[in-house]
Structure to design on (240 residues):
């Protein structure tokens, strides 16, 4: 039986325990999760919070496709939850949860890592940092357009 | 002429939630991006260049040609997580 996939873009706080419950399976002995949170500094600037902008229909579609691809690669015996926050979060707020359950730990560790890296590269989500000095900036990221590999542009190792 | 509506995200939000205009049928993705560079006054052309055109389901390929009214989005480089 194909593993279960749960994807959500949420404007209410993400819940780690709920994510684990969704992916839990009596046949699975491993649940691995990645939790992304807002940190209080970026490139030396003091951060008060981050606003997440999301192109919701395409983001849900992209996350679903990512999960299906990973499920295919891991032979189907895998349950995946990805939740991403939309809106403004203070420092410490949870922006993303990825929870993966598999029969054994190696697969859940590697699938979870692969999913967060893919999310950062492909999901149409943007973050605007709000700084202590009152300024705000959209964080630079990964270009989705086809010519992106030909262009040099700033990419912050963020998150 | 066809109607093009383009939702704006991330760094384009300062220009509003969307840009709407008409273009001749047969306009390409490049044409839409060039038109956006005119519509969004003062926008960084490099940001337009580094952005993708998409619809609700997928990124629209660079060679795609629009022949009917279209609801699109322009996606600056992404940074979720």
């Amino acid at each position: 039986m194909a593993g279960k996939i749960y994807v959500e873009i949420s404007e209410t706080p993400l819940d780690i325990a709920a994510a684990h419950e969704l992916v839990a399976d009596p046949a699975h002995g491993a649940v691995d999760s990645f939790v992304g949170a807002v940190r209080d500094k970026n490139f030396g600037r003091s951060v008060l919070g981050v606003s997440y902008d999301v192109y919701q229909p395409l983001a849900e579609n992209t996350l679903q496709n990512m999960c299906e691809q990973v499920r295919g690669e891991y032979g189907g015996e895998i349950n995946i939850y990805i939740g991403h926050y939309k809106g403004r979060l203070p420092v410490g707020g949870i922006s993303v949860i990825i929870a993966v359950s598999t029969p054994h730990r190696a697969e859940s560790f590697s699938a979870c890592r692969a999913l967060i890296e893919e999310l950062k590269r492909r999901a149409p989500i943007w973050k605007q940092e709000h700084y202590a000095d009152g300024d705000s900036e959209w964080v630079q990221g990964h270009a989705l357009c086809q010519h992106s590999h030909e262009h040099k542009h700033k990419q912050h190792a963020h998150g | 002429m066809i109607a093009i509506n383009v939702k704006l995200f991330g760094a384009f939000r300062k220009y509003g939630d969307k840009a709407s205009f008409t273009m001749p049928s047969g306009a390409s993705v490049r044409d839409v991006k060039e038109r956006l560079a005119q519509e969004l006054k003062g926008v960084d052309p490099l940001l337009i260049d580094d952005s993708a055109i998409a619809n609700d389901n997928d990124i629209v390929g660079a060679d795609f040609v629009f022949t009917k009214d279209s609801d699109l989005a322009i996606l600056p480089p992404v940074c979720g997580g």
